[in-house]
Amino acid sequence: MRKGSLKEVLAKIKYDPREDEGEYYIIIEHRGAYGNEKKIPVEMIELGRGYFFIGETQIPYHRVIRVVRKDGKVVWKRHSRD
Hints:
Layout lengths: L5 H10 L8 E6 L7 E5 L4 E2 L3 E4 L2 E4 L3 E6 L4 E4 L5
Antiparallel strand pairs: 1-2, 1-6, 3-4, 4-5, 6-7
């Protein structure tokens, strides 16, 4: 698993020429509903300061639960709130 903040991991995936952003997706907690998760390809998002964007929709980084490669390997995971 990669070390660093979520934004650092996403920036590396999106902007490092050695990475293929099409090989990654994020899992978000949709509207804070426990167990209501949504899978979003990294290539669909644009990074912002406290939010990332999918088109005109802004989503706060704290909603991201995991960053996963298409082969299923988790590359970043939010610390448990428990």
